[in-house]
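Subgroup meeting minutes
Present: P.N., E.W., G.H.
Scribe: E.W.

1. P.N. recapped why we're keeping a running log of single-chain structure predictions: easier to compare across weeks, and new members can see raw inputs and outputs side by side.
2. G.H. added today's entry (143 aa).
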Amino acid sequence: MSSASSKTFEDVRVGVRCKIAALWIAMLFLFAYGDIFGFFSPGQIEEVMAGEISGMAITQGLLFAVSLYIAIASVMVFFSLVLIPTVNRWTNIVLPSLYVVSIVASAIGETSAYYWFLSIAESALLLLIVWYAWTWPRREGTP
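Output recorded in log:
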């Protein structure tokens, strides 16, 4: 046996902040893929060109709301790395929970298998964020 084959990989511990930030990034990728795949559905592009999406008029207010929805998730990547632990923990418990509620609400009445798959995957990632935030390790000697 050569000495190279007897070596093992170093097991580097990844901090909870990095795990949470990575989960936010993965969730955003799934969200974007869902929007892109949606345009492959028959009639979807024509509906958008007519100024509607899923029965709602495409207005400046709707576009702003969707932009805000995505922007909040996007800045959470950064905030997960820099906020103080207590604020970080609670922000990463409350916000992902609200996102899961919005995903479930938007999936009601949806029949597309890809939409359900991506909604479940996004929700799973968001629930992992909640789990990591909830089980955030405490320093010894703190209550």
